[in-house]
Amino acid sequence: MNRVKNKIALVTGGALGLGRATCLLLAREGARVAVTDVRDEEGRAVAEEINRAGGTARYWHLEVADEAQVKSTFAQVATALGPVNVLVNNAGIAGANKPTDQVTVEEWDRVMNVNVKGVFLCTKHAIAGMRQAGGGSIINLSSIYGLVGAPDVPPYHASKGAVRLMSKTDALLFAKDGIRVNSIHPGYIWTPMVEGVGQGSGVSLEDFRKQVGAVVQVCARKPF
Ligand SMILES: NC(=O)c1ccc[n+]([C@@H]2O[C@H](COP(=O)([O-])OP(=O)(O)OC[C@H]3O[C@@H](n4cnc5c(N)ncnc54)[C@H](O)[C@@H]3O)[C@@H](O)[C@H]2O)c1
Q: Which residues line ligand 1 (CB under 6 A)?
């Protein structure tokens, strides 16, 4: 309990899946949470759930690939709750699931804009407030797909590999300011994103679950 008491935490993509769970956990551990997402109804519901349980949260609409929105949201959160101490760069999309020679430039750009530019923009606009607060923590959701290859979602693999190295560079750049930057690399977790990939996979959801289970087992045996 209270591992992040009185910290201000901003979570991107906080309406669903891992982001939602992260918001609820940060609130239970004492943080005041800025829940942000593009899915306003679900995002507001997360903030309301936290407030009903006795925590403190507010929802902001935030498209992470839009710098004007990112800048304005960090400013609004600082005014409403205080400068952000903890940033969870969680928003992400799976994007096109087809071989590289069939991926369009638009499909490639959309994944890079959300998964890579989104992390860059939110990090960029978090730093000043963290310096002002004397330090902070940035947690970037990469993926097991940022560590190992698999024969699917090529733009997603590229984006999560980028997030891994952005995290390493930013960790070195901002250590002197007391700002930690880490990436985390989950295997498959059943969320709306993974279910969406399963629905477009051409096999039943049950078979898809078995397939992703097999991928995770192979990855778990490989040394990184
Ligand atoms: N679920 C997994 O198995 C898994 C594994 C490894 C990594 N991840 C990563 O964890 C993160 C969360 O994944 P999830 O499975 O919970 O996904 P999800 O699709 O269930 O939830 C993602 C959330 O991000 C929001 N979002 C999408 N695009 C956005 C944008 N442009 N701006 C702001 N918000 C946006 C969505 O509205 C949604 O609320 C992602 O970065 C994903 O790549 C997930």
A: 12-13, 15-19, 37-39, 62-65, 90-93, 114, 141, 143, 186, 188-189, 191-194
Residue 49 lies in a domain: yes
Angle formed at CA 34 by CA 57 and CA 30, multiple of 5 degrees: 55
Q: Is 156 a catalytic residue?
A: yes
pTM for this model (two decimals): 0.96
Please give the tally of structural domains in the chain. 1
pLDDT, tens digit, for every residue of 201-221?
889 999 998 888 776 666 566
Provide the CATH number for the domain around residue 180: 3.40.50.720
Pocket test for ligand 1, best of 191, 201, 208 (most atoms within 8 A of CB): 191
Ligand 1 atom closest to Cα of residue 115: 41
**Could you tell me if residue 172 is inside a domain?**
yes
